[in-house]
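Figure 2 data, in text form.
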Amino acid sequence: MNETLQLEQVASSEWILQKRGEMRVPGRIIADKGTIAQLKQDLAEKKEWNALEQVQNVACLPGIVSAALALPDVHPGYGFPIGGVAAFDIEEGVVVVGGVGFDINCGVRLLSTPVAKEEIAPLLQKLADDLYRTVPAGLGSEGKLRLNVKEIDRLLQEGARNVVERGYGLERDLLFIEEEGRITGADPTTVSLLAKQRQFKQVGTLGAGNHYLEVQTVERVFDQEAAAIYGLAEGQVVVSIHTGSRALGHQIGQDYLKEMERASQHYHIPIRERELVCAPVASPEGGRYLSAVACGSNCAFANRQVLAHLVRTSFARTLGLTTEAIHTVYDIGHNNVKFERHRVDGEERTLLVHRKGSTRAFGPGREESPSPYRAVGHPILVGGTMGTTSYVMCGTPLGMEKTFGSGIHGAGRALSRKKAAKKFWGKDVEASMADAGIILRAHSMRGIAEEAPGAYKDVERVVQAAIDAGITRPVARLRPLLVLKG
């Protein structure tokens, strides 16, 4: 491999990318040997995008603390690798567009139901049809909630509470959303009119790409105490909703790429990849971007809140459940940037933590967790593939120490969408899932091919690497029964 990038294995699932050249800190990669081998191969083949070089590039940014991190679901992204984490000193550090990405606060909401797998089995086809009609999904999909600029501005400030007050969901949901569904510091004036206009009809829509809605069963519980606290039991039916801030978040990313490029030049910050354009945390440009991200995050929380309401409506219509019978287990994002308190070299400091395709994974005792979960830490929601499994995990003290309380967000792609579309055929994927007893409803055959299970890493390996490294521990494994895709 390139002589400037030397990896040293320091534990069974932990590797250090040695500090060289312009790197201000080393890289730390949590992964198994197979993932490391693929990262090295990508580098050796001089691929235009490779995650190791992206870790190196992040390690060169001003004010970065401890290490540039990559977690077991690591693969190349825009600027930061997906599965990347970096924390910055608030005085000397920067805020980075590529450390959040274009799908701001893309995340997962997990709902629990009082229904067992055996009870729902005869009604799955009916439920699939009803969810397909009820939940807007697909490229350019539109929801029933129509907003104007004034209403969007309120939603960007208030987040999930805004739509709860409109009748979408329950007041109790808010306790079980990260930051109670509202990031502070959101100023709608930092979001362009174009971004707001693109969102007028998209609140309450699933979207396309890797976004999904899955009806799942709790196949296995690994940690009885944590599962009981979260309200999960083997054989139970649950629902996962994976989506983000839709067109608004993407437009914020596009707008601030340009603004932060100018800021990088103004503050004389050398940039090694375009999406790493940045500004000092304390600068006016940095403040504007952080505010815009808060707006995008609040939009995503509201979006998932409306979708959860639609799921409840469908389950009530199809299965006769009351909407109050379906509970929000947790809602957490995995493309975000936040001010957090962490201990570094024995000193507690306020840091600006970027997580790109990585989820907050706070362990026991952190006040950011909902009070009912504080003894074990909040749930970490790890999406697998539509043909395999997903996981609920929780954080550990070691994870707080090594990764700033960060965990994996999914299996991680093994093939680009373009390569997956060439390798897989949508109808074949649909048939193989049917053979496995999984019902699939999708709006695009190409989308099915792009999101084929074979386009992703083995989620079991990715989860095991996180467990072996001690940064998170498993609570429950979920298996899909019904999948809705854009």
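Caption note: Residues 284-319 form the longest helix (36 residues).
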